[in-house]
Specification:
Number of strands: 27
Oligomer: single chain
Largest sheet: 7 strands, mixed
Distance between the termini: 37 Å
Structural class: alpha+beta
Length: 729
């Protein structure tokens, strides 16, 4: 899921929320024992008169020390009930209590009262730590210092956002943004913000408006069909269902409970289920890859998606974390809850049902052919619209789109490996002496470099536009595991995941290099898919030839990869923590199973780093250059030392590379117009006319997103476009 594929959006509206749960519309605020905040009084207009005795004494105590920032314009805050204070330096101990704990959840507040007397805007953020606690006192003191007032002048506050600032290892702390209400009588012109602290009127996020289209959903043209239950399909279907349009949602894979059982069976050595695996099934590939909710897109829908996840059972803290995640262990229940909301709103969801064909009439969709994933039985369903949210691994859908005359184009994607380190190494590299502080948890990283590009072993002309190639880390999983992500027989694919606690002994990340359209031969739009398949099958055969069990993954230490040697000193003879591996098979004995200690060779050429490979089907020590393209391996070899300069220890010779990671994003884009409908290949390339196919490519598989959040946002954008069509007509 390459972050480079993310697309921003500008859609925004107010009104009914996705999910309809009002509890996230406001927050319980922390109130001081001497303040008058809380309730309507706290949200009232601050005093604008002369300075009170309290203010005067506060100014005398705080003054305008040298660390205070430039002159502060208080007039911009006139009339604000709450102010937003950002860049507040917060000590780590303030994070020892979660401000969104189970016992201190946000409480519902009315969105409005009478038309002429709207209720005060209450921050849609997390509550503060329990009143009177040490964490609450630290937070209040930090806010007061940032504003240049006394702690008692901060009547109430609510956490909007918090991140870790580890730029100086000697001063690792949190950087926080708060919605703050000042005590009665404290005027805004009494504030003296510290240097770097930003203060503005708090603007609460607008809820998502969903129109009521039930009276318009009586067309005899057919149903709205949503193909795919990844984040794009789920959020598109949820919006359409709550608008009253009764979508039919089809998913080629299994429901999440059956899917989880199939994945556990495969991880334990069972056969691959082509209909229920890490790629296919309810929730999409993201369900079993940590549930990271970070994105490079800018959209008001990001907040809407986060709130819908919380309403579906995700932890409240995703609303204020700078890098939110749900965790693979919690995601199944969350996606199931969203499915249940779709059904309760009038939608229908069918699993193990594949989109086998799209039938057109006059260039517009007329019907779809649905196929039972297990029996192959087919059914024709009349359709007024089709949302193709198939995900990046539904390669048969790409072929279907090509055969039906839809406009497709090659797009950049990426390929590489998973790199594993002990999590303690990453913690030390990122946090220094603060690494063991309980409030920090497992550290992460995100890095990118450019290296000289090579194609077919020859360096590209240094003056060309393609003189360099990107090498970067992606989908970093702190305290996580490498995942067996195959979806086709005879192919090995790896991915990564973390549970909510992120408490595993290893960290892992995709280590990828760009694959550009001009890296591929010919002009066939499916060439990127062919390259992915070739690499996956080559990895399967390479591991088997070197004595591995089926779907074992080829692996190599960083030291051996850079030296061009095959890792061999760590080949296991069957031992595994927590159990044993049957020695009946030579292949099984030669597979390094998860939990086997891997201590890399001689001290003169290797570090003493110990990594227990976590890939569940076991790894086999191989030369990764025998399954990955040469230009990818060259780029990774050049990039590793450069990345190590950014994060000390990243290129430690004992770190483990497991491959291949081929499904980071889709190699194909289904070309759509401004109205989100797919174009036909027969359309004139310079035509300004919008397509009228009534087929809507959506999300990551269609080439318009690069992760859970951007895919969910794209699903909402497509749903809004469809709702607008109904409203217009």
């Amino acid at each position: 899921m390459s972050s480079k594929d993310a697309r921003g959006d500008k859609g925004a509206s107010t009104g009914k929320r996705v999910g309809g749960n009002k509890k996230m519309s406001g927050a319980k605020l922390s109130t001081g024992s001497k303040g008058t905040g809380g309730g309507k009084k706290a949200a009232g207009r601050p005093h604008r008169g002369g300075k009170t005795k309290s203010q005067a004494s506060s100014r005398q105590r705080t003054g305008r020390p040298s660390h205070r920032g430039a002159s502060f314009d208080a007039s911009a805050l006139e009339g604000a009930g709450f102010i937003e204070v950002s860049n507040v330096a917060l000590p780590l101990d303030a994070g020892l209590e979660s401000p969104a704990s189970e016992v201190n959840r946000p409480t519902p507040v009315p969105l409005s009262t009478e038309t002429n007397h709207p209720a005060p805007a209450t921050p849609a953020a997390s509550p503060a730590p329990a009143e009177g606690s040490h964490a609450e006192s630290l937070s209040r003191a930090a806010i007061a210092s940032a504003l240049g007032v006394a702690p008692k002048d901060v009547a109430s506050f609510s956490l909007v956002r918090r991140s870790v600032d580890a730029r100086k290892k000697s001063n690792v702390h949190f950087n926080a943004t708060y919605a703050v209400h000042l005590a009665q009588g404290v005027a805004y012109d009494a504030l003296s913000p510290a240097r770097g602290v930003n203060v503005r009127a708090y603007d609460p996020p607008a809820p998502l408006a969903i129109p009521d289209l039930r009276s318009l959903a009586t067309s005899s043209d057919g149903r709205i069909v949503v193909a795919g239950t990844g984040p794009a399909g789920l959020f598109c279907a949820l919006y359409l269902a709550e608008a009253g349009l009764r979508p039919l949602v089809v998913e080629r894979g299994a429901a999440v409970d059956e899917r989880t059982a199939a994945i556990e069976s495969f991880n334990a050595g069972g056969p691959l289920d082509a209909a229920a695996n890490v790629q296919f099934g309810e929730g999409g590939a993201g369900t079993f890859s940590d549930g990271k909710l970070t994105t490079g897109t800018k959209s008001p829908h990001i907040r809407h998606v986060l709130e819908a996840f919380v309403q579906a059972g995700a932890p409240d803290e995703i609303l204020w974390q700078a890098k939110p995640h749900i965790g693979t262990d919690k995601l199944p229940a969350v996606v199931k809850s969203i499915r249940e909301r779709i059904i309760s709103a009038g939608g229908e969801v069918r699993f193990l049902t594949r989109l086998a064909d799209i039938e057109l009439s006059g260039g517009a969709v007329r019907s779809v052919v649905l196929e039972d994933s297990h029996t192959g039985a087919r059914e024709v369903v009349e359709a007024s619209r089709v949302i193709v949210a198939c995900g990046h691994s539904a390669r048969d859908v790409f072929e279907l789109a090509r055969d039906r005359g839809f406009a497709l184009e090659r797009k950049p994607f990426s390929m590489g490996v998973r790199i594993e380190h002990p999590q303690t190494l990453i913690n030390r590299a990122q946090y220094g002496a603060a690494a063991k502080h309980t409030a920090l948890g497992a550290a992460d990283y995100k890095m990118a470099v450019r290296v000289p590009a090579r194609a077919n072993g020859t360096r590209t002309d240094a003056t060309s536009d393609n003189a360099t190639r990107g090498v970067y880390t992606f989908c970093m999983c702190p305290g996580g595991e490498v995942v067996a992500a195959a979806s086709e027989e005879g192919g090995v694919v790896v991915n990564g995941m973390s549970r909510f606690a992120r408490d595993g002994e290893n960290s892992n990340s995709a280590l990828l290099a760009d694959v550009r359209p001009d890296d591929l031969p010919g002009d066939d739009v499916m060439e990127g898919v062919r390259l992915q398949r070739e690499v996956e099958h080559a990895a399967f055969e390479l591991a088997r030839r070197n004595g591995g069990v089926p779907y074992a993954a080829p692996a190599q230490t960083v030291g051996d990869f850079l030296a061009g040697a095959t890792s061999s000193s760590g080949q296991a003879e069957g031992g595994q923590l927590g159990g044993t591996v049957a020695a009946a098979s030579e292949a099984r004995r030669r597979t390094v199973v998860p939990g086997s200690h891997r201590r890399v060779g001689a001290p003169e050429s290797h570090s003493r780093l110990v990594v227990r490979p976590s890939y569940p089907r076991g790894v086999v020590w191989c030369d990764l250059r025998k399954c990955l393209p040469e230009f990818i391996c060259d780029a990774l070899a050049q990039g590793l030392p450069l990345l190590d300069a950014k994060l000390h220890g990243f290129a430690d010779p004992g770190a483990v590379l497991t491959g291949p990671e081929t499904r980071s994003s889709s190699p194909i884009r289904m070309v759509r117009g401004q109205n989100f409908q797919v174009r036909l290949a027969s359309d004139l390339p310079d035509s300004d006319e919008e397509p009228a196919t009534r087929v809507y490519p959506c999300g990551e598989g269609a080439g318009y997103a690069g992760g859970i959040m951007s895919a969910a946002v794209d699903g909402l954008r497509v749903a809004e476009a469809i709702a607008a069509e109904f409203s217009f007509h």
